[in-house]
Design a protein that fits this description.
single chain; alpha+beta; OB fold (Dihydrolipoamide Acetyltransferase, E2P); BirA Bifunctional Protein, domain 2; 2 domains; eight-stranded mixed beta sheet; five-stranded mixed beta barrel; 15 strands; binds 4-amino-1,4-dioxobutan-2-aminium adenosine-5'-monophosphate
């Protein structure tokens, strides 16, 4: 069906005075004796296009003004005196799909919680139009950032035989249904599809490191899966993960890259999605645009974990969870550091080795590792990052201390045997940065179909 995008009709002055065909869904309508107005949206822009039906010229088919109805409209593009834009004087209207009165989006504003019950319909609201356009622009910016800087985009496997983070949050992959015929786990897995235990990947890092040892700079951008029992506004069981891995980079280098990339993405959204950001500012986060401007114009803070712990203790604030050197920082601590102390994105560096993963480079102090998390106000952690342990013996020691099955990681350990180099990488949670950029406070509202504990459809 040949038609013009509503975005094009609304932005191309050369179309004024010409006849066009537009298609879309009715967002609102007003009907009176001599004239009717329809606000039509085709998803190409947040704005609706006004269709004017002069009843002395034509009559719209019955039901054309029902909310949610899909239409094909032919008419002349004319200036809209009220808003300096354009509207369409309709010559003919065809209903593509009728929409009955039980269409769920009858009210102008509905709570986000209510909309989560109808994921297949909520995408038709302004909020989700804006969220998903920003998401799409951000995905493009991420690819462009890495592609323009000689990174190779690699697709790491989603089904893996090893657990990258070692946190026991792996969804099992099996082709055997419930069965009580096996006497042990070993017997069961031996009979299973891969002949051994397999799961959905929590991170593409280990395979990303393999690729970085050949292509130097790589990135992955795909889904990761975590069976963590965290019913919070920041966790989903299936999230999109951006994971660059850079050979010959130390911790300070990868921190620079992460900051540069975040600023690049935000600048791109500010340039390409001003209408969407204005919408988020008005509806969801007052001061959003000023916040984003501050992010791109200022440097991020870099604070040692030990200093952060001292600052938390010195603050005198009563936290629910204890603050003590050696303990992991909880969300409340992270939020205090980034929202109250620094009021901007903060890299916390050099965490105690016992609370971090086996693959992180061990610092000379013997107590900490060259790792960093990037925390941002309002969301908390958006990036987990580290320099990797490149020394064969030290890596093996760290794995043994954690009682890991060395055999399962043989390929990974080989990287330290054959031409090992210093290298670093990070994982950015795509939904988390979308939350930060849009001001949406629940991760369920920035992904098409959120998968969370006890909920899937
Ligand atoms: O800090 P994480 O666990 O780091 C890794 O997976 C490393 N292997 C990454 C690397 O160095 N290549 O996870 C990285 C990021 C987190 O900072 C967070 O933004 C996101 O992934 N993330 C989640 N996002 C949504 N829901 C969840 N359940 C998430 N778990 C992690």
């Amino acid at each position: 069906m040949k038609h013009t995008d509503i975005k094009e009709v609304m932005s191309n002055a050369a179309l004024v005075g010409t006849n066009v065909v537009v298609c879309g869904w009715v967002r609102t309508a007003r009907d009176s004796k001599n004239i009717a107005f329809i606000e039509l949206n085709d998803g190409t822009t947040l704005k609706h296009l006004q269709i004017v039906i002069d009843k002395s010229v034509m009559n719209a088919p019955a039901g054309a003004t029902n909310l949610g109805t899909s239409l094909r409209v032919e008419g002349e593009v004319v200036p809209n005196m009220k808003n300096d834009g354009v509207e369409i004087n309709a010559r003919s209207i065809d209903i593509l799909g009728a929409c009955p009165a039980d269409y769920p989006l009858q009210k102008k504003f509905q709570k986000l919680e209510t909309l989560r019950e109808i994921p297949h319909i909520r995408v038709r609201t302004n909020t989700f139009n804006a969220v998903f356009r920003v998401r799409s622009v951000m995905a493009d910016a991420i690819h462009r950032y890495f592609q323009d800087r000689n990174y190779v985009y690699v697709n790491t496997p989603l089904i893996t035989g090893s657990d990258c983070e070692g946190a026991g949050e792996v969804f099992k992959v099996t082709s055997i249904g419930y069965s009580d015929q096996y006497k042990s786990e070993q017997e069961y897995y031996a009979d299973d599809f891969f002949g051994k235990k397999a799961g959905l990947s929590v991170s593409g890092q280990l395979e990303g490191e393999v690729a970085a040892m050949a292509f130097g700079k790589i990135y992955t951008f795909g889904p990761s899966f975590r069976a963590e029992n965290s019913n919070t506004p920041r966790h989903v069981a299936e999230f999109w993960h951006v994971e660059p891995e850079v050979a010959f980079a130390e911790l300070s280098d990868i921190i620079e890259i992460a900051e540069d990339m975040i600023k690049y993405i935000i600048r791109d959204v500010m340039e390409k999605c001003p209408a969407e950001l204005k919408f988020f500012e008005e509806r969801f986060e007052k001061g959003l645009i000023e916040k984003l401007t501050g992010v791109v114009e200022n440097s991020f803070a870099v604070v040692d974990y030990t200093t952060a712990v001292e600052q938390l203790i010195a603050s005198g604030k009563k936290f629910e969870y204890p603050v003590e050197w050696g303990l992991d920082l909880q969300t409340e601590h992270e939020r205090y550091i980034t929202e109250e102390i620094y009021k901007k994105p903060v890299f916390i560096t050099n965490y105690p080795k016992d609370i971090k993963s086996f693959y992180m480079k061990q610092n000379p102090d013997g107590k900490t590792v060259a790792a960093t998390d990037l925390l941002v106000p309002g969301v908390g952690e958006i990036i987990g990052c580290s320099e990797r342990e490149a020394d064969y013996d030290k890596l093996l020691d760290a794995m043994k201390q954690r009682n890991m099955n060395i055999e399962e990681y043989k390929d990974y350990i080989d990287l330290r045997k054959y031409g090992s180099v210093p290298h670093s990488g990070f994982g950015l949670g795509f939904e988390r940065i979308i939350m930060y950029v849009t001001g949406m406070s629940n991760i369920r509202d920035v992904i098409l179909y959120p998968r969370t504990v006890g909920s899937i459809r």
